Amino acid sequence: MENHAHTHLSKEALKYRRKKHAEDMKRQVITFILMIFLTVIAFFAVGYDGYSKWFVKPFILLLAIIQVVFQLYYFMHMSQKGHGTIATFLYTGLLIGLSAVVAFVLIVWI
Questions:
Q1: Which of 102, 103, 73 lies closest to 90, judged by CA?
Q2: How far is CA 51 from the centre of its chain?
Q3: Furthest C-alpha separation in the chain
Q4: Which of 30, 36, 41, 110 has its CA 20 to 30 A from that of 73?
Q5: Where are the domains of the chain?
């Protein structure tokens, strides 16, 4: 009798997992399409002669930052629970890297 109840719970758990995986896959496909769209916008911004380089360069960097966030949170599963330590190391490395870039820029330009 207990074995039958355990099997029923496993079927419910399997059903929940399938639904969860389907939702995750849907989010990843939508994010992938958005990233392709952002890439097309970036190519258009570079190829269009009407935009100045003072607009295009920061715009491309903004699109790149958005794509990095999409990569981290959807494709690297950083939005899920249990990735706190990894996120801490990642953000610490990002802070150190950005600090180094700012320091080098200040040294070279000032």
A1: 73
A2: 28
A3: 78
A4: 41
A5: 2-79, 81-110
